[in-house]
Write a structure and sequence with these properties.
The protein has 253 residues and is an alpha+beta fold. Helices cover 36% and strands 19% of the residues. It is built from 8 helices and 10 strands. Strands 5, 6, 7, 8, 9 and 10 form a 6-stranded antiparallel β-sheet that branches. Strands 1-4 form a two-stranded antiparallel sheet. It folds into 2 domains: 92 residues, 434 Repressor (Amino-terminal Domain) (Orthogonal Bundle), CATH 1.10.260; 136 residues, Dna Ligase, domain 1 (2-Layer Sandwich).
């Protein structure tokens, strides 16, 4: 059916199905949100994005990236530069083909999947070596994911279920769910990392492990999965409980 829909309608249905912002759709497609808006408004036919947008509509993520336009000589066609760059045009990064699957253990990998109802799943793999490039990338990805989730709370609070994978000295991997059954309030996580763990994401992750499974926090964290979803408690009730100081159970201390 998606192959028969006008592209403008396919964009609108995809956005509505997952509660995505224009920016998030652009990030999935590897294009600017301005381009996505143009397709939605019928200002650009966008037919070359049909495969990518169909995947986004059906799976919540883009696997097949649409190639960038090229000249007859095979060079990438310049695109409009961001206003703050002071330039009128720039050469974009080449896109096209299939996104790479999750890499093997011991390497950095990040996957972001949109789910119906505005829910979202993030998967992060990272090497266990302290201060390695891949490990730093993994922790930065966690920071980026939680920031995205907190920014998406305009209509409803978001909660996160978090699963942490650790690897012991023998190479054995174990996966643990931390927090309560209802997960964490997204904003609480970022607040506690900043104020109770000195900005250390890894310190917060290990603290959660030890709080629920004593001793597990001594092994390196090599993977994190975040499942974000709308909170059942309304924002108004949450604010009232915050004011009264009755909401939070101090699982973070």
């Amino acid at each position: 059916m998606e192959n028969q829909l006008p592209m403008s309608e396919l964009v609108k249905r995809t956005k509505a199905a997952y509660g995505m912002t224009w920016q998030e759709m652009g990030e999935q497609l590897g294009r600017s949100e301005r381009m996505v808006r143009k397709i939605a408004n019928g200002e650009s036919p966008g037919e070359n994005y049909r495969t990518s947008l169909t995947e986004l509509y059906e799976k919540g993520q883009v696997i097949t990236l649409t190639p960038r336009r090229r000249t007859k000589k095979g060079k990438l066609v310049p695109i409009r530069a961001k206003r703050e760059s002071g330039k009128s045009a720039v050469i974009p990064k080449a896109t096209g083909g299939k996104r790479q699957p999750t890499v093997k253990q011991g390497k950095y990998a990040f996957n972001d999947q949109h789910l119906p109802g505005g829910n979202r799943r993030y998967s992060i793999e990272m090497p266990k070596t302290k201060n390695s490039k891949g490990r730093n990338q993994g922790l930065q990805a966690f920071d980026h994911a939680t920031l995205q989730i907190t920014k998406s709370q305009a209509q409803a609070d978001k909660r996160m279920r978090i699963l942490i994978t650790v690897q012991d000295e023998n190479g054995n991997r174990r996966r643990y769910e931390v927090g309560s059954k209802s997960g964490f309030h997204a904003s609480d996580v970022r607040t506690d990392i900043k104020h109770e763990h000195g900005g250390s994401i890894e310190g917060w992750l290990k603290h959660q492990l030890n709080a629920v499974y004593p001793g597990t926090g001594t092994s390196p964290v090599v993977g994190v999965e975040i499942n974000a979803y709308n909170a059942t408690r309304t924002k108004d009730i949450r604010r009232q409980e915050d004011t009264a100081g009755t909401r939070r159970r101090r699982w973070s201390r």
